[in-house]
Amino acid sequence: MMMSTSIYHKDPTRRWFFSCCFLSTIAMLSAVFFFGSQCVLSDYKEKFLAWGLVDAMQYTISKNCETHCRPDGTEALPKGIVSKTSDLLMQPLWGPRNKKNSKSSTNLLAIAVGIKQKESVNKIVKKFLSSDFVVMLFHYDGRVNEWRDLEWSGRAIHVSAMNQTKWWYAKRFLHPDIVSEYAFLFLWDEDLGIENFNVGRYLSIIRKEGLEISQPALDPENSEVHHDLTARDNRTEVHRKINKLIGGGRRCDQNSTDPPCTGFVEMMAPVFSRASWRCVWHMIQNDLVHAWGLDFQLGYCAQGDRTKNIGIVDSEYIVHYGLPTLGGLAPNKTNAEAPDQAAKTISLPSSEQPASTSSSPSDPRTEVRKLSFVELEIFKNRWKKAVREDNCWDPYQKTPQQSKN
């Protein structure tokens, strides 16, 4: 031991060599530790950042999905497979599929019909089919097969339910998502004369004038006209207001803003744009089948100013015969007498209403008129109640379509 120690002390070269080796080793170990720790920290840092990005991405996706509007019931489906709308295009059971033609069948005619008006309905349908309309017939008398002899019958959609009005049918078979393919919906009665009506010119006029809700003017000489606004003015192509004294002593003039002076159509031959019908459909009450009172509220569905977007087309006019088809003709009563008598009855307070009497089975038309007036009062009360209770309702609120314009 003494020898080795003395040799170590006596050899400075060897001592320097061992010192250098020792220091070099320490330096290498320190460097390895330093860079290794940096790598480890960076690795963990990247993982932490990655986890944060994933969380942020998932949060963003979640928020985007929350704001993305999906139809009720489709939440479990991928967006691309959802078919939100439909149409009335019939398809064959085999062979090539029928394809929609973008230049044709872009409008829809829907009529409630009975076999007694077959001749007039035939004239109406033939005129509309020549303008590439889709035609839908609502058979309120159930006699569908008796229309099969007409050459166009196989091209029309036939729906049958006994003794139902066109508004009952419309609420159930003309949902906006079903008829969204059609630019305009003509929801007409069957007792109309169309000798002076051209479908193509009418469509051209309402597009040019920007009419969201319209109707052909009524020939005042030959029609049953209930409101002066809808009577034809042979001096104009379209009119939106009238300037005259109307029923009840009310004066209509150019400053009028309310129906029936302006912003109004009658219900025998209304024409709705796609956007206005989506609104009107929701206003139709499911249980009020005669839809009385609806005409006075149509302005809220005019997609803007009702005094501009609702109009009467004078150059293309029709005749309204006013045939009381549902319920038949009431004996010993004229059409003019029925509304006045019913109005006198319905205007009384409920406590003063006369006791109801059993109606004769041969007088169903009178019962139809009575129910129509009862439904009118119900609708008016529902409207008032809805306005009173909806604190968020803004009658002048713009629709999404208006906001884009």
Automatic annotation (TrEMBL):
<dbReference type="InterPro" id="IPR007877">
    <property type="entry name" value="DUF707"/>
</dbReference>
<keyword id="KW-0812">Transmembrane</keyword>
<feature type="region of interest" description="Disordered">
    <location>
        <begin position="332"/>
        <end position="367"/>
    </location>
</feature>
<keyword id="KW-1133">Transmembrane helix</keyword>
<protein>
    <submittedName>
        <fullName>Uncharacterized protein LOC103334736</fullName>
    </submittedName>
</protein>
<feature type="compositionally biased region" description="Low complexity">
    <location>
        <begin position="347"/>
        <end position="363"/>
    </location>
</feature>
<keyword id="KW-0472">Membrane</keyword>
<feature type="transmembrane region" description="Helical">
    <location>
        <begin position="16"/>
        <end position="36"/>
    </location>
</feature>
<dbReference type="Pfam" id="PF05212">
    <property type="entry name" value="DUF707"/>
</dbReference>
